[in-house]
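lol forgot to send this yesterday, sorry. struct tokens for the thing we talked abt
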């Protein structure tokens, strides 16, 4: 599921216009690789009925959209998170039994590296 989501994000022109990097955590230490998106699965659950599993699973996936270091860090991170939200809010990935919905978005600042990031939390349902 996570690789399908990664490939889906990389197929979105609004995202690839900003970055071609969608990678698992942790983010690289070299700031020359920014902007980028990192991902991690924060929780996973299976749905059950009276007779057992109904075949539907849900995962919460956190995407962190990092801007480059510098004056345009926030604008770049925000533009990237907006592209992710547009691609993922209430969407079924074409040809897949995967439904995406955005749960929330947060802005943050990495004080160690002086870069901005925007976090988008998705609920991903498969059946």
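and heres what i got for the seq, position by position
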């Amino acid at each position: 599921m996570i690789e399908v989501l990664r490939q889906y994000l990389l197929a979105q022109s609004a995202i690839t216009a900003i970055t071609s990097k969608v990678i698992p955590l942790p983010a690289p230490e070299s700031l020359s690789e920014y902007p980028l998106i990192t991902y991690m699965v924060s929780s996973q659950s299976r749905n059950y009925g009276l007779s057992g599993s109904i075949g539907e699973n849900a995962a919460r996936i956190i995407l962190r959209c990092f801007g480059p270091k510098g004056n345009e860090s926030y604008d770049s991170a925000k533009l990237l998170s907006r592209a992710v939200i547009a691609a993922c809010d209430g969407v079924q990935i074409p040809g897949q039994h995967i439904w995406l919905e955005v749960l929330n978005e947060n802005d943050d600042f990495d004080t160690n590296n002086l870069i901005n990031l925007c976090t988008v939390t998705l609920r991903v349902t498969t059946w």
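The mean pLDDT is 93. anyway ping me if u want another try
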